[in-house]
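In the previous lecture we treated proteins in isolation. Real proteins rarely work alone, and many bind small molecules. This record shows how such a complex is specified: first the sequence, then the SMILES for S-adenosylmethionine.
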Amino acid sequence: MARGKRKTRNWLEDKKGDMYTRKAHRAGYRSRAAYKLSQIDGRDRLFTGAGRVLDLGAAPGGWSQYARKKISRGSIVALDLLPMEPIEGVTVVRGDFTDAAVRERLLALVSPPAYDLVISDMAPNITGIANVDQANAADLAERVIKFSSRILAKNGTLLVKVFEGHEATRIRVLGKSTFRQSVVRKPDASRDKSREFYLLLRERRL
Ligand SMILES: C[S@@+](CC[C@H](N)C(=O)[O-])C[C@H]1O[C@@H](n2cnc3c(N)ncnc32)[C@H](O)[C@@H]1O
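The predicted 3D structure, ligand included, written as tokens:
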């Protein structure tokens, strides 16, 4: 792309990012990420019939705030490595998703022990080494898909963040082989230059 065009595109991207940041601030959302979820939900109706929701990588809490708006009754459990300010109606768990004991704790918090909707915006810390970062992100997405296929209700839904890269195809294939429905979503609120996209998976096959 010519330098001038790239500059214009970056400028437009920054404007868009600022617009979502201001909008989130006005609406009382803790992060502009809330708009990624709301845009996917606007199209795919994620919360229909969802009484038990698990938010993975929840801090600072934009997705959990949005989930709380969508379901006033029911259970919302939010997990993050980092501390997160409480949200009324949301059970916040601090821990590492890759730790089996933490995953068991997430299950013990709902009765019966299953979720209707898992939303994962988890992203590992960036090392700056492209191959390592892609492998870490793919590893996390793979764990989320496998865990969700075990703990989702039969018609449950999983929304999981994935990063483009050499591992992304493997994750897409895993999604398709684990769930009957699989679609890719890239909401407007996600920066074009970000390699993130979301896999929306419904109806586990097991
Ligand atoms: C992009 S942020 C999530 C933003 C959030 N969806 C919101 O709306 O505010 C990604 C989060 O994933 C969390 N995370 C990354 N690896 C994790 C892990 N292994 N276990 C739990 N949380 C993790 C990070 O601490 C970070 O807070």
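Summary for your notes: The longest helix spans residues 3-27. Residues 24 and 32 are 5 Å apart (CA to CA).
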